[in-house]
């Protein structure tokens, strides 16, 4: 029996028919619907929307990390010809509601991090605004800053919960005692650096007031979330704010919620009546104003019997938050479900620092957490003298650890076995450091991937039959470049029983029905389910031969939140690297990701999502690191000369494949989200391959030549 047919057999049965969509368009490798518009430059990104009488905003950022503004001299800036407005915390319009401190812009003289907005200039041209901003003189009263991220700080604290509402700590059994008594003990500390999201399109917005109504052309993963937060902060009703974002040039989580620049643009536009105020952050500004991935220090302990059966798993994480607003990443959460063990302990502790608020970056939590966990498993395999795949298979849990829930769709072992076969794992010499070709040492490594299946409630889709026989399908969803335009069209076509050519889709606008965020890999699952529900409602009301003008709408149904089964995606990543024995340079030779993600809606786009995630993971393994200068409280390598991201030359033979699988427990389409799982485990696979090549275990990312030569 093949892996594929086993998988089908496992999930074919046991689900209600209302939750199953007949598929024709789903599964087709359609080209991107927005492809032509993108390559011909006619798909407008936020700042490219045509507006009348645009004006340009340039911000002034604090040069201290903590303290107060004492004085600001704006005289010279205000006198520059072409300057429309200069705003500071003295002159900015008052905001209404400070629930979200990150959005409490120019309301007081307090400084929480270096790079915070302290003033802004609006002018007729960007050059004028920037020049005038440079003339503004700010005097500060600096307080002692504290940006030192260390695991031995006395003031580490336990947050009430970590992101997505998970418990901060978990304890099952006597993990410390079991560890102490174990025949084999693996105890190591891993670290991952601060990283910054850098989507191709910088964070940008155009703010335009017309009477009491604010329009934002914004680069966002959620038009409706931006509307809600901006309306609340400004003291407006949601209907007074419209957010338009049909095309978005990437986000990776950093556009999942509005940031201070959205509010700054709206405030500045109030002082520039009749003008559409454009603000696009520069790359350097994005290092302080668009969130970052928290650095982590993670102690991992694994106790096992000599034959590799886990007795104890202990994962203790230290990470950072900003002092002014808490962000508690869920780093140890994947450790709670990956492998079977009679005892387990997980901990999250935060260092509250004078830094910008950390934020989401592709698979927040799973990405750094699974780096530590999957290198730890590799280290344990070495200690037990076991193949790392065999070690994982021996610790496969029958039900979800902790919750005891049955697995909805766990195919980790299938991914490991089938991936191993396709990658050619079988010929691997178990001893490290054996394969020398010229000056290059070659090695291979493996790591598991996982990501939860999230479906968010609250999206609504509407459908209308038009005169020309087509259907208008409307939902305020976002396409970050991921392919939403195309995949939602495919889902709508199957839901309505027509070809994709008969679907006219509208997304990316708060004038459309409410949509949840393109985050947590939940977008297509949540919005697609709303479209399927709306199509069912449409059929119920209008039959299969609707008259033009017939309409219906529906929300993602409550049953989408069903938590009877433990629902997660899994994968296995295989990497081959070569390490230069003279320079310490690491090159990735090839990588294969084998995934279990439910039915794939569009293979062309899915492959692109998965290898995109893997590329970001290899970038994390070898290149990315934001370096904090503790004397200044600023990222010293805050540009693309100093912050290295994998480029074409680094991306070798990368392939993503998946099990043929239909998961109607997760969604009516049979699919689960795929935006994030591709990055999870990649860095561990690369690090494990580096160990296999060299015999050197690097536990601090990124794996740079100096660490290998040391
Ligand atoms: Mo993703 S980091 O959940 O937007």
Residues in β-strands, percent: 15-25%
Fraction in helix = 10-25%
Mean of residue pLDDT values: 95
Number of strands: 26
Strand order of the largest sheet: 3-5-1-12-9-10-11
Ranges where pLDDT stays below 50 over 5 or more residues in a row are 1-17
Report, as a whole number of angstroms, the end-to-end distance: 49 Å
Please, how many helices? 16
Task: Determine the structural class based on helices, strands and strand pairing.
Answer: alpha+beta
What characterizes the major β-sheet? Answer: 7 strands, mixed
Could you say which overall geometry the principal axes of the C-alpha atoms support? globular
Bound molecules: dioxothiomolybdenum(VI) ion
- The oligomeric status of these chains comes to single chain
Radius of gyration: 26 Å
What labels describe this entry?
single chain, 710 residues, alpha+beta, seven-stranded mixed beta sheet, five-stranded mixed beta sheet, 16 helices, 25% helix, disordered N terminus, binds dioxothiomolybdenum(VI) ion
Outline the structure in words.
With 710 residues, this protein is of the alpha+beta class. The strands form six sheets. A seven-stranded mixed beta sheet has the order 3-5-1-12-9-10-11. It has a five-stranded mixed beta sheet with strand order 7-15-14-13-8, with helices on both faces. Strand 9 (204-210) and strand 10 form a beta hairpin. The longest helix is centred in the C-terminal third of the chain and has 20 residues, at 523-542. It is globular and about 75 Å long. 56% of the residues are buried. The model is unreliable at 1-17 (pLDDT under 50). Bound molecules: dioxothiomolybdenum(VI) ion. Dioxothiomolybdenum(VI) ion (MOS) binds next to loops. Residues 221, 252-253, 256, 360-362, 364, 519-520, 676 line the site of dioxothiomolybdenum(VI) ion.
């Amino acid at each position: 029996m093949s892996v594929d047919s086993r998988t089908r057999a496992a999930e074919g049965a046991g689900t209600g028919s209302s939750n199953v969509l007949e598929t024709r368009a789903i599964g087709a490798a359609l080209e991107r619907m927005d492809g032509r518009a993108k390559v011909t430059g006619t798909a407008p990104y936020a700042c490219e929307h045509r507006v009348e009488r645009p004006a340009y905003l340039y911000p002034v950022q604090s040069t201290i990390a903590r303290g107060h503004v004492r004085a600001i001299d704006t005289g010279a800036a205000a006198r520059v010809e072409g300057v429309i407005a200069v705003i500071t915390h003295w002159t900015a319009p008052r905001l209404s509601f400070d629930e979200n401190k990150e959005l409490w812009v120019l309301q007081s003289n307090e400084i929480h991090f270096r790079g915070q907005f302290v003033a802004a200039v609006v002018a007729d041209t960007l050059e004028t605004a920037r020049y005038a901003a440079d003339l503004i003189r700010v005097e500060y009263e600096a307080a002692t800053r504290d940006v030192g991220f260390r695991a031995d700080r006395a003031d580490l604290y336990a947050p009430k919960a970590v992101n997505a509402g998970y418990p901060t700590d978990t304890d099952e059994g006597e993990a410390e005692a079991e560890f102490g008594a174990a025949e084999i003990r693996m105890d190591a500390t891993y670290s991952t650096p601060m990283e910054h999201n850098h989507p191709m399109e910088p964070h940008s917005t155009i703010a335009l007031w017309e009477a009491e109504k604010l329009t934002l052309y914004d680069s966002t993963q959620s038009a409706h979330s931006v509307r809600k937060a901006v309306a609340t902060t400004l003291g407006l009703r949601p209907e007074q704010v419209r957010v338009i974002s049909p095309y978005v040039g990437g986000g990776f989580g950093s556009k999942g919620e509005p940031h201070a620049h959205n509010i700054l643009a709206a405030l500045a536009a109030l002082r520039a009546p009749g003008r559409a105020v454009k603000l696009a952050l520069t790359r350097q500004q994005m290092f302080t104003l668009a969130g970052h991935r928290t650095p982590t220090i993670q102690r991992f302990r694994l106790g096992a019997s000599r034959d590799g059966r886990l007795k104890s798993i202990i994962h203790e994480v230290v990470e950072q938050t900003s002092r002014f607003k808490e962000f508690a990443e869920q780093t140890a959460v994947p450790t709670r479900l990956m492998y079977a063990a009679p005892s387990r302990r997980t901990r999250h502790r935060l260092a509250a620092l004078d830094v910008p608020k950390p934020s989401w970056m592709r698979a927040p939590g799973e990405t750094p957490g699974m780096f530590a966990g999957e290198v730890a498993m590799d280290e344990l395999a070495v200690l037990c003298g076991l193949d790392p795949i065999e070690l994982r298979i021996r610790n496969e849990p029958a039900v979800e650890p902790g919750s005891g829930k049955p697995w909805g769709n766990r195919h980790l072992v299938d991914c490991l076995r089938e991936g191993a076969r396709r990658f050619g794992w079988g010929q691997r010499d178990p001893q490290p450091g054996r394969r020398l070709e010229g000056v290059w040492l070659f090695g291979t490594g493996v790591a598991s991937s996982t990501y939860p299946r999230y479906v968010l409630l609250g999206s609504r889709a509407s459908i209308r039959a038009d005169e020309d026989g087509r259907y208008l399908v409307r939902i305020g969803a976002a396409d970050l470049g991921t392919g939403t335009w195309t995949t939602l069209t495919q889902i709508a076509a199957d839901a309505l029983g027509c070809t994709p050519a008969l679907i006219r889709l509208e997304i990316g606008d708060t004038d459309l029905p409410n949509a949840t965020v393109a985050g947590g890999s939940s977008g297509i699952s949540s919005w697609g389910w709303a479209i399927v529900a709306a199509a069912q409602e449409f059929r119920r009301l209008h039959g299969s031969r609707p008259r033009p003008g017939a309409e219906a709408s529906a929300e993602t149904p409550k049953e989408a939140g069903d938590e009877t089964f433990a629902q997660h995606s899994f994968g296995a990543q295989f990497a081959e690297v070569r390490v230069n024995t003279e320079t310490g340079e690491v090159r990735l030779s090839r990588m294969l990701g084998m995934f279990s993600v439910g039915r794939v809606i569009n293979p062309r786009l899915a492959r692109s999502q998965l290898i995109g995630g893997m590329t970001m993971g290899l970038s994390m393994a070898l290149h990315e690191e934001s370096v904090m200068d503790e004397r200044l409280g600023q990222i010293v390598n805050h540009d693309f000369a100093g912050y290295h991201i994998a480029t074409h030359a680094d991306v070798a033979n990368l392939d993503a494949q998946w099990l043929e699988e239909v998961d109607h427990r997760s969604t009516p389409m049979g699919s689960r989200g795929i935006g994030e799982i591709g990055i999870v485990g990649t860095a561990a696979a690369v690090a494990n391959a580096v160990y296999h090549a060299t015999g050197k275990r690097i536990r601090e990312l990124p794996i740079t030549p100096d660490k290998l030569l040391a």
